[in-house]
Design brief:
The complex is a heterodimer. Chain A has helices spanning 8-16, 29-34, 77-88, 99-105, 150-160, 180-187, 263-277, 295-298, 309-315, 324-334, 343-350, 358-365, and strands at 3-6, 21-25, 42-46, 68-72, 93-96, 107-114, 119-125, 130-137, 140-144, 163-168, 190-193, 204-205, 211-214, 217-222, 235-238, 242-246, 249-250, 253-255, 286-289, 307-308, 372-374. By secondary structure, chain A is α/β, with parallel strands linked by helices. Chain B has a single domain (5-73), classed as TusA-like domain (Translation Initiation Factor IF3), CATH 3.30.110. Chain B starts with a strand and ends with a strand. The radius of gyration of chain B is 11 Å and the shape is globular. In chain B, strands 1-2-4-3 form a four-stranded mixed sheet, covered by helices on one side. Classes of the chains: A alpha/beta, B alpha+beta. Chain A: Residues 17-112 form the Rhodanese domain.
Chain lengths: 377, 75
């Protein structure tokens, strides 16, 4: 039997098609516990590769013969070795090209919205739960919350025949390294970020903009600009059709407040945003967040992560009719003690305070995002 | 530290550092010490986890400019 290699894209397509897969994950137990390839139709078995060096005979009763078998490890080498061993036992097995590192870096692009003024694409970083966006209008494009894989946005813009002229970050990310600064350098685009987030390089301070206009697009900056402390997250309301909610509102919950160490202050800002700003937005507006927690739970019938505001209001009692104190209490209590892996270093890099080589960036980013507070918890 | 044997696993990627470590340690006697040199960053976590699962003992490890050294006592 032969061993084949599969890319992250091929495996994610299978997840999207809800194909049954058996994933033999040969990383260390801690890594597996931390994060893995998720999917409702996926069965997992985890055993570190170093327990299989003498052969796979002992785990053969754990491996199904009626499902597709994919072996994964951190970088690729071990999964290839184990897949070859399975093949010698007469099974057909494949392994993930580039390992979980490539899974962490894969972005899936899908169209979210289109009318005669603009087109919106969503980029789903499936291994991390991060979302970024491209708004195309006329001959220009605006990118929201870009990941560090700037080639992907440049290619997407090229495919549309447009130039990237504006880049916005809804907040200073704690779970991944922003591509905003690099993408701005590479394209000459304007890069906007809240000044209060503490970045030390050149950018346009969102505090100075109520609106960003280009071609047939008008992007309204929705922020509670409390002087003197980190505002957490800004939202962008575009053409009164689409709300890029950053880390404030998710499809299944609200943003997590604890990273700044000022839980209640942050929760109060979130309350002001939700009750004084978002409350004025109509139910039919599409909410597009910066993160998700569970792809299959949160993906909608159209195939992207997002939901109309009316539906989010219906599903989430915290979105309306709460007193400020109840709201703050709820959000404060749902603050998790689990932080995104390496968040302090990632924040320092996103502020421009620290620099890191690509290999270091890969290492810092690997793992889950843990940015969404789960309302249901 | 007085190593019984030294394994040069520099430049090797996962899974080879551990595959070689395992082979070499099989040739040693209980109580012997194997010194391993590796450049693969993943080797650090993997060796620590592997040692735990096998009953050997990781006596010491060091890192200097991308070169990792480990001393493992055979159980």
């Amino acid at each position: 039997m032969s061993v084949t290699v599969k890319t992250a894209q091929q495996i994610f397509d299978q997840v999207l098609n809800k194909e049954e897969l058996f994933i033999l994950d040969v990383r260390n137990k801690d890594d597996f516990k931390d994060w893995k390839i998720e999917g409702k139709q996926i069965d997992h078995f985890n055993i570190p590769y170093f327990e299989l060096i003498d052969g796979v005979e002992e785990i053969m009763d754990k491996i199904p013969s009626d499902k597709e078998i994919i072996v994964v490890c951190a970088k690729e080498g071990s999964s290839k070795m184990v897949a070859e061993m399975l093949s010698e036992q007469g099974l057909t097995a494949s392994y993930l090209k580039g390992g979980m590192k490539s899974w962490s870096e894969y972005l899936y692009k899908t169209e979210v919205y289109s009318d005669d003024k603009m087109k919106v694409y969503q980029f789903v970083r499936v291994g991390k739960g991060c979302l970024s966006y491209m708004i195309v209008s006329g001959e220009e494009a605006l990118i929201v919350d870009p990941s560090r894989f700037t080639d992907i946005y440049k290619k997407a813009a090229k495919d549309e025949g447009v130039n990237i002229t504006h880049i916005v970050d809804s907040h200073l990310h704690a779970d991944h390294i922003s591509g905003g600064r690099i993408l701005a350098e590479e394209t000459g685009a304007n890069y906007y970020l809240m000044k209060s987030e503490g970045a030390i390089f050149d950018f346009k301070a969102l505090e100075n903009y109520n609106k960003i206009d280009f071609e047939h697009v008008s992007l309204e900056v929705i922020a509670v600009k409390t002087p003197g402390h980190t505002p957490g997250s800004v939202s962008f309301f575009v053409n009164e059709k689409v709300l890029f909610s950053g880390d404030t509102i998710f499809v299944s919950g609200l943003g997590r407040p604890d990273l700044g160490g000022k839980v209640r202050e942050w929760a109060k800002d979130l309350y002001d945003t939700v009750y004084n700003k978002v409350s004025l937005i109509t139910d039919d507006v599409i909410v597009l967040p910066a993160h998700y927690a569970d792809f299959e739970e949160e993906v909608n019938v159209a195939g992207y992560i997002g939901e109309i505001l009316g539906e989010i209001r219906k599903q989430n009692e915290m979105m309306s009719n709460q007193s400020e104190s109840d709201f703050v209490e709820h959000v404060a209590q749902s603050a998790s003690s689990e932080t995104p892996p390496n968040f302090e270093e990632i924040i320092a890099i996103n502020r421009g305070v620290e620099e890191a080589e690509e290999e270091k960036q890969q290492e810092l980013e690997i793992g889950p995002n843990r940015c969404a507070v789960h309302h249901t918890n | 530290m007085n190593a019984t044997k030294i394994l040069d696993a520099k430049g090797l990627a996962c899974p080879m550092p551990i595959v070689k470590t395992k082979k070499m340690i099989e040739e040693l006697q209980s109580g012997d010490i194997l010194e391993i040199h590796a450049t693969d960053k993943g080797a650090k976590n993997d060796l620590a986890a592997w040692v735990k699962s096998t009953g050997h003992e990781l006596l010491e490890s060091s890192e200097d400019n991308g070169l990792f050294k480990f001393w493992i006592k055979k159980g």
